[in-house]
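Hey,
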Amino acid sequence: MSNVVALPTRSLQITLCVSDPEVLHELERRADAAERETFAAHALRLGVLALRQANGSLDAEVIRREGTQLVSSVGAVLQQRNSDLSNSLLKTMVQYLDPTSGALPQRIDQLTKPQGELESMLAKHLNGDQSQLAQTLARHIGEQSPIFKLLSPTQSDGLMASLSDTLKRALEGQRDEVLKQFSLDRKESALSRLLAEVTTSNGKLRSELAEDVAKVVKEFSLDNEDGALSRLVKQVEHAQATISQELSLDFEDSALQRLSAMLEKTSEAVETSLTLDDEASPLARLKREILEVLSTHAQANVSFQTEVRSTLEIFKAKREEAARSTRHGITFEEQVGEQLEREAKRVGDVCEHVGANPGRTQRKHGDHVVELGPESASPGARVVFEAKTKKGYTIKSALSELAEARKNRDAQVGVIVFDRDSAPDNVESLQRVGCDVLVVWDADDVATDIYLNAAFGLARTLAHRERLASSKQDADFAALDASIEAIAAHLTTLETIEKAARNVKKNGDSILNHAEDMRNALERDVAALRGHVDAARKQA
């Protein structure tokens, strides 16, 4: 079976003027135009082929066409052969490997099935006493085998008997040799040589020991002036005499005499230094310096108390004047608004009271809104303020309401101002939580204005920070955070100063009491030191 591929045909229409007589004669013999055209084409092809052969060249087109036909024929033959080979291989695989009828599964089943060929062969060689394996083992290592007889202890010519006799003879020989070495009857035995060496060494040891004892007795004899004991006694007597001389008060240069003189000088110097009768003594100078410090501190304390009283009087006068003015009787919310208006006007911001107007969420959260002015770092940034005089608020509920107020008034930062009497117990005077600020303010205490003003400045800084963060601009947030934390730290320090001011008088009295206790302790120490000096002098 072969496949013939049809080659694409091309045509070229030409017009020829024929003048050759022989060619004209052949063409005129074909009266039909189609036949004449076909004849002319064949004649032209034959002429072209003849010319190519005459020039020694091959027709590449003919070779290409014939080669293509040859490749197509070979491909078809190979495809047919591949198909036949696949079918033959499939039949052979089925014949040998088919699970139901294949030769290989049937052969494996015959070998492995119960009572099969494999089981029968293994039983024949391994099973029972009559198996080939059992018989082979019995012949080689059984009771009647040569190796069993060789290893049997009952066989006189066996390996065990031979080994036992050999060991017995070797042990008897070793025993006889050991007995010979420990026998005193033989002079060359080890025991005899040992006794001879011990006797010789003992004699030398006795003589050397006697010489050493004589030397020791000579060294420890008091009759020998050059002996060790005589020299030791002389040294002890000399040391005893030296110690007695040094510890005696009869000799002017003795150690005890010098120590006594030194104690007397020290006692006199201590008594001179610790007396208050001499104005030039260190104790007298210390007393004067302590009194000067206490006097200076007392004057500073009086001056500070006077300054505090005057400041409190000024605050009190301002409060009384405020109580007599038109501000007396206005609500806490309005008082907060007036304070915020003053601060906003000072820095160029705009403060608006919006408590009565609905906000972005059509609610009235937020009492005052401060919009940063055009001269600020973030023009247009907004801060919402809430004024609270109602008790029962917690930090969590206050922050939740501030979040609603920021959203309602389209503000970046929220500040809630608590009246001192209604503020939560655990809230600080000024506290920052994220972008919210909590502050405690007393409208009747001018000293607390600093906290509200600080909260105002802190909120403006936070608004600038939030505006930069929302616009994704580059900014030194670390510097802003540091400024915010510095404000909070300064306010904490201010609280500490106020508490210290209230305790100044108490601390001054405490310092005076400590100075008095120190003076009494010094007097007791001086008295005790004098007693020790007197006791040392009496002993001397």
